[in-house]
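Hi F.,

I've been meaning to write this up properly since the lab meeting, where we talked about keeping a consistent format for the predictions we share between groups. The idea is simple: the sequence comes first, exactly as it goes in, then the structure tokens exactly as they come out, then a line or two of notes. No screenshots and no reformatting. I'm using this chain as the first example so we have something concrete to point to.
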Amino acid sequence: MNTRNASRPPDPGRARLLGAAAALLPLVALVVLSESTGPAAAQESDGNWLLELFDHRGADIGEGIPMWGYSAFIRYNGHTILFDGGTSAPVLEHNARTYGVDLREVGFAVLSHAHGDHTAGLDYLLEVNPAVRLFVPQDGYLGYATQQGREYRPGYRYATDNMEFVAANREVEEGIHLIFTRSPHIGYFSRYPPNEAEPQLIGLPEVSLALETQAGELVLISGCSHSGIEEIVKAAKQATGTEVALVTGGFHLVPYSADYIRQLAVMMKDELGVRWAAATHCTGDPAIAIFEDVYGEYCVKAGLGTRIAFPP
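Output, unedited:
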């Protein structure tokens, strides 16, 4: 399969997050994936699924509270996983109770990156589940000692002795892979290209989660895709030697033109072989509409309160 790199355009505003919340929408039924009938099949696959606990948008919100941020509760082969924590611990607590999941059951959690719309809700997780195993990117803002001589006590951001820094791809349990990437675009605060002639880039560390399906493919979950969603897909494929069946999470495409986003969606579908796309969070509604057009019935609607069963 051809996995040549698409050239990303200059990034005019990856630092800017859009904080508007979507209007509440009616509660809708479970979204399930099936190769033969597409994303709307009405039967479970292998019992593995993801439930979005934090997002500002969605069709399945019900009594949940929509807010900018991202978090996903995952059941996978007997494991219970939390990916990211969203922007608010009280909102994460409310949404978990509303959608009937108990974060005390979480065996381990993964933090994608050190931005507040993904970190804050983990305070609630650690309050009710202090022994949880927590994987975070190797980042000075999360307690890792930096090369600038500022010594941080490891784990200072989160009060747990079970935090592990991730600086490379690793398989933490059978079929559960952490994919480590760095963004070439992220600079300090608002100093992003092209706003400065020579911005000081920090190469934001980012961790994505790749889960093997029974068919030997991957479900790939990304927090914000600051590294580029296509680069994360490539990194997951290279790390595991496995194709990606479904990718979900934030694709961070708000700053880009419609032509570029369409080119990217076609590349992911035709060149990288991603069969299903479930974009949400920082992807942006115009970009989500383009993915829906490119992927057709294989574009899964994601959002707060939506449960997505993994493909078989």
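Notes:
Confidence is low (pLDDT under 50) at residues 1-45, 146-155, 188-193.
The chain has one domain: 31-309.

If this format works for you, I'll send the rest the same way.

G.
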